[in-house]
Amino acid sequence: MNGGRAFLWQLLALAAAVVLAPLLVGNPYHLNVLNVMALNVLVVTGLNLLIGFAGHISLGHAAFYGLGAYVSGILSSTHGWDPWLSSLAAALVVALVALVIGIPTLRLAGNYLVMATLGFNLIVTILILQLDEFTGGPSGFSGIPPLKVLGRSLASDQQFYWLVWGAALLGLLLARNLADSRVGRGLKALHDSPVAAAAVGVPTAAYKVKVFVLSAVYASLAGSLYAHYFGIVTPKTFDIFFSVELVTMCLVGGMGSLWGGFFGAAFLTPLPQVLHVFDEYKDVFFGGILLVLLIYQPQGLAGLWTRHARARAARSA
Amino acid sequence: MSGWEQLSQYIMSGLTTGSIYALAALGFCLIYNATHIVNFAQGDFISLGGLMMYTLLGAAGLPALLALPLAVAVVAGLGVVLEAAAVGRAKSREITVLIFITVAASVLFRGVFKEVWGKQALAVPPLSPDVPLKLLGATFTPQNLWILGITLAAIAVLIYFFNHTLTGRAVRAVAINPKAAALMGIDTRRMVRLSFALAGALGALAGAIITPITTASYNVGVLMGLKGFAAAVLGGYGNFLGAIVGGLSLGLLESLGAGALSSTYKDVIAFVVLLLVLFVRPRGLLGGGEETRV
């Protein structure tokens, strides 16, 4: 993960594209797809921080996303909290949960975090389904109020577009700053050689837990945005298969690359919508793409990008 | 029904599902020992075992004595394909990438099963006609006995294979130290492939014997596979005896827990156990896996 000056220019280019896109996309349905894409960019960027910095994969990010959605949704509608405040409260809850999961499992080498987050996601899904008194059970939880800015509700696709893409850009910028921070450098050292990093005094376990919590909070905030945008949340949206889909986006985009999350989400979110055939064959399609990429191109789309850039640099030199 | 009768009923059903978890956990162990990866497609081996039995036994009308080995062979073949075409072919040798190859394969398998067999639940005929039996107050069907018997037989065959055959010992040697095994002239790649075949066979067996009770469907094995995974962690990941102990105790815990508390949260039990084990004793009951601290 490196975030040099080039990254800032790329981010600026993306921001320009974000500003221009609504001029080209008039159809509210397409705008809706773009909004979902931004939500996915946010979650996957967080997940990629975990993969890139801590070298761990989480199969529980759909659950963090779901907790962000359900906790904020329930607090704001059943208990009448302000949606911004309830989103913050949900993020706090998710951060605590991530701490509880991360502290015991991240000090161990191996795949314990994958196992724990997988179990956690399954538990959350079952609880959402069974606690129907609070969550609405299988039919979902509806009547969630929209977010308000300066007294105006952000209810339309157009208004939400600015909010969610703003959040996505901010998320990318924050991820880049983290790469440049003390924690980021410490974790990079850890990635290269855990023993050497520990020997020079990098508190590796604590850093890993921090990144894990941060990445869970990304998912939670995206989940809260989702809930206040759609007004309804259903358990299926946040099951283990969505966790797999999120990791798919990371891997397709480029594991641990700053832009990987963006590429993966931008590529995989609209495909089923644009090509209706794929909706029926979604599993075959997702599984197939992921399989081929993992076997032949484990660095993902971002890997192709850097290889292409390197080849061009080599030609011009 | 008296308290004792109820208890023996719970134990009977706990041992039945526990056998399935044990078979799945053994599959996880075999592949872990051979490659150090978690094979998330284990649950799909179970699904395919059940689906093949539906087609061979129900639709094609083959006798059980022919259908069962055929189903096991097909799924063992799928295990070999998974290794030969995907896991073994990957450019990256990073464990994380390899694990997600099995996740991707699982998604793909499930998609294909859905296209071939549809989404509905399919009734699989039992191995022998359903007549209610009674023992110590518990009521059960011959299928329960088939499940226990076949699981015991599979375990016996595995014990014999790993202790008394040259190939079985070679598989164990590769698990302990692949480099040393290769230097001794063992074809490690073949042994890894064999482990995938065995894991497929065990999954097929589990699916073939449980689906007459649960019905078969394209995703029937997913939850059983995940619980088998929890069982493997409970017993000590990679430990064979641990897989059996973990599977049976998880089955009992689930059925007794559902009986004592409520069946609403039955499915949570396995994953709460999984988290508790990872938090408190990651090596599991009997020890296994690598608990390295960095």
In words, what does this structure look like?
The complex is a heterodimer of chains A (317) and B (294). With 317 residues, chain A is mainly alpha-helical. Chain A has one domain. In chain A, 77% of the residues lie in helices and 3% in strands. Chain A contains 16 helices and four strands. Chain A has helices at residues 5-24, 28-54, 61-77, 83-106, 112-130, 132-135, 157-180, 182-192, 194-199, 204-230, 240-253, 260-268, 270-274, 277-280, 282-296, 300-316; strands spanning 141-142, 148-149, 152-153, 232-233. In chain A, the strands form two sheets. Chain A has a two-stranded antiparallel ribbon. A two-stranded antiparallel sheet of chain A has the order 2-3. In chain A, helix 3 runs parallel beside helix 5 and helix 11 (240-253) packs parallel to helix 16 (300-316). The longest helix of chain A is centred in the N-terminal third of the chain and has 27 residues, at 28-54. Chain A is globular, with a radius of gyration of 19 Å. Chain B is mostly helical and 294 residues long. Chain B has one domain (3-130, 137-280): ABC transporter involved in vitamin B12 uptake, BtuC (Orthogonal Bundle), CATH 1.10.3470. Chain B has helices at 3-35, 42-59, 64-86, 95-117, 142-164, 166-176, 178-183, 188-214, 220-235, 240-260, 266-280, and strands at residues 133-135, 138-140. Chain B has a two-stranded antiparallel sheet. In chain B, strand 1 (133-135) and strand 2 form a beta hairpin. In chain B, helix 1 (3-35) crosses helix 9, helix 2 runs parallel beside helix 4 and helix 9 (220-235) crosses helix 10. The model of chain B is unreliable at 290-294 (pLDDT under 50). At the A-B interface, helix 4, helix 5, helix 9, helix 11 and helix 15 of A face helix 4, helix 9 and helix 11 of B.
